[in-house]
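Can you give me the bound-state structure? Components:
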Amino acid sequence: MNRLDALRGTTPPKPHDARAIAALAANPGCARRALLDGAGIDKDATARHLGFPAPFGQSPFAITRGNAFEALVKADGCAELLRMLREVLELPVAEVAYHDVENVGAHLRHTHTRALIDRAARDEHDSGTIYDHPLLGLEIAGHTAYLEPDVVAFQLGGRFHIVEIKSFAVIDGQADPAAVAAAARQAAVYVLALRRMLRELGHDPLRVAHDVVLVCPENFANRPVATLVDVRRQLAVLERQLSRMTGLDRLVEGLPEELTFDLLPGEDGLPTRPAAELADALRRTTARYAPDCLSTCDLCFFCRDEARQEGACDLLGRQVRDELGGVASAEEALGLADGSRAPAEGQEEIARLLRTAERLRRECLA
Amino acid sequence: MSLLTSLARLRALEEGIAQPIATVRHCHLAERPMVLIPLRMSGEAAAPLAALLGTRRDDPRLLVVTQPRNRDLRFAWAADLAAELLPYIGSFLAGTETVERKNSDPYERVLDAPQILVPNQAGIAFIRLLGRSTRFRRAHGPYPVPPTVPLLGRWLTYFGERATHPGSSLMTAVTEELGRHWASGQSGLEDANLAALTAWITTGPSDDAEDPLVWPPAGPATDPGFDAEVLAPAIEAGAAERITEALRGQLEPTWRLMWQAVDLLRELPEGASVEQRWEQDRGSFSAMAQHIAEGAPPQARRDGAVAAASRLARMERAQAAYEVQRAYDDPLVMAEYRLTGEAFAGEVVETEPEHSEGEGRSRKLRPLVVVKTDDPVRLAPGTALGTPQRRAQGAQLVEARDGLVTVKITKGMGRGKTPAPGSVPEVGERVCYTSLTDDFQGSPALPEAEATPWTHGGPPREYAPSDEDALEEWS
Ligand code: SF4
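Here's the bound-state model for the whole set.
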């Protein structure tokens, strides 16, 4: 058995979705996360079993609204979508074919998507087609992750575009920047997957545009509006991170032979592994907690707790950590500040600053 | 954030309680603030769900949209909100003073202005969107709304915009204000949680703060668990009473926290420049009221190019002034500049009050002061200096060497042969000098709006809201 599979043990692998893959790039320095994701471990279940469930609930209202909006955009064979695509891509398209890949049944979807895309890429007549519910694959650390985008791949003039439908509003031409950034990161995953598919099929991967079409409701109504978003930067980050994941072997090598994060699911599928034992196993891997984890990683509360116990400066945010340049724990920094600890080599400058800062605070608060 | 604040955060982490990073209060705090906690319907951009508001802690008003997808109920809610906020805003318009201006006509300024306190930045953003979704509505024609609704929209838009003006206190997020005065032992991101931040300041960190069952979120987003288990079934059942009570339960804990935050801030003595900034707020508020009284149209959907540029320039100046004023008002803020070498403080060890420069008629009094300091001074000879101890005074750095800094006073010591009494610090006095000075250039010469260059879209048209604006869906 492959070492990564051993880390997961008897627990079924959790398929990565685009969101999870996009989040891989969120904290590239974290070995713990790289290992868990590489082994296909269900981080959400792990966190719950550890007693640190992730704080990522979604309101049923938000889900309903999202589904309703997607249905609206895709209604009547994506008629509304086509209208917007014409506008935003400035295409003189009269007729466009519509292919719902979902009709073929789940197990065939990926092969079918592949065949359709291959045919489109070879097509000399170059007729436009919208592909609904395509199923793309992306290799993550030796496993193929299947991506079921709510996206549509649109092909015309020899170019493919990823379309992503989101239900956050664009108001007077502006949307929540965090939401747009997250959508761009996700769309980049689809672009990459589609590019790799084209390459495998012997076509030019760059026929997939790096401009994705983001469709959102406009203002306060349900009317959709499409915008082009350039995801080149997100693509670069993603590719770098994925290539690092193939270097997981080195991370695995440093781990004790018998180490596993197996939840040991019982007959009912519920974990039987003692939580304390699982926590110990996780602590054998190096985390790199940052407050950003609170919005990107299921394990955030577990890792934050660990950082608290260590009194790590990381708890206070990257800015504080950067300012303290190389002083890792609160205790160490405070020791340097009040002079009870002598600076190590290379710490002279930060120690001097901390001592001055401490003197100034005392003086002002006296 | 500065290293000084980082150190305070570390100390907070170690001691398990937040640490002060200010010795005075840097925001205005009204005698009768309007506390406003808005809740939004999840998944919607600006659909209101509820609000708890009021100027007295023992008398909050709860406004609820009991069927959040019903457009009429939504406008009725907006009208209810208007019925609470507009009289509050209007109550400040009666008392005014006449302000004389150079090169311009005198104008009337209110003696006091409203202050709206919201839990967090997201709350302010939501208020701005509420303003945007209501200000273009009309009282006549198809889909008429109560006339107070568009008026409310204009005010909410105004307050939302003014909230981005550095140093303004007309509408502020209390988490921001608390965070400007205390450093917690958690990250800035987590400080946006009102319950968590107040716990750090008062009793020490508490895991309950993140438990939505103990401390429901301070809005505008609701707890997804609450949505799923309580709100959705109640809406499904059409149980208006149940919805109202459930939302009251979600809002009341935050209401208590808001007033606790007001108490915490009120305990701090007010900084010396707060009144001056509040005066500007009063002026801005008066101008807006005047605007509305004169029948000007609602704020445009987007600023024109000139308006945007001059707004940016105004904000930059306000930011610079705010930073200087806070440092002058508060030694703990000034300490940040002492740490970076842009300010120094210490004891006067030597003076030469009658030192002068030049001969004959051009002879000028230039008193010299030598200050002994432990601070790492990084200022070049000739640098212009100011001092919080004598704000009208101007000075110049002569030299800094071995912890002794010689300063030459150039302004604010009178016109006589000898300095005016008290204008030159005496030996033994503690003083602070800094290169930060409240000396700003006037506004850059931007063209008048009518003269917008064509490269920037040509002269803007006065924004005339269209029928489409008025009929815009709100779903
Ligand atoms: S929460 Fe933990 S495992 Fe996840 S990225 Fe952060 S440090 Fe790594």
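A couple of observations. DSSP finds 15 helices and eight strands in chain A. The first strand of chain A starts at residue 97 and ends at 100.
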